[in-house]
Amino acid sequence: MTTTFPDISINTDRLVLRALEEADAPALAEMMNDDLIGAWTAVPQPYTEAAARTWITEYAPAERAAGRGIDLAVTEFLTQRLVGVIQLGNTNWRVRSTEISYIIAPWARGEGYASEAALATAQWLFGDQKFERLELRTAADNTASQQVAQKIGCISEGVLRNACIARTRTEDGGWTDLRTDFIVWGLLPEDLDGVADQMAEAGYSSYTDWS
Description:
This protein is of the alpha+beta class. 29% of the residues lie in helices and 33% in strands.
């Protein structure tokens, strides 16, 4: 029997993390066509609504059914607007570890949403799912993602040299691959001690509930 993540909703004061829905496709496609997302992820560029629907209706359900991970829409509690996506993947159920990644829409950056969503996910994983390790890999030059890792208590564990393919714009407006390093971050349950309080002092939500 395959172990899988439950159909989950995670709530903070400002955000709701839930399963992706087909109605998210237009906002998801718009988000994915941002240059920063194009640079730091492997998603096809340009990204179409058809690709977004395939992700929502085929890829995400298959990942969850196979026990590899789960994809969660991150939405604003008050407006229900799509803020971003949290992905868990490469899950090892015996070790109780998984790898997290996050994408935030351009209009929602600078609000602490990535840190809030990632912390809430970690609290759920460690508290409800009894996981023992959360891993994150960031491109060497992706300082925004590294700041999120630090805010939620991740510890930098090393560098995977030349292990990442990023992208950069060409003069004609296209994309070209750029090889760089991955920084590997790890988060254990004990690393969360005090993190929620620190984020609350900085003005970000620290309350998490799930159902």
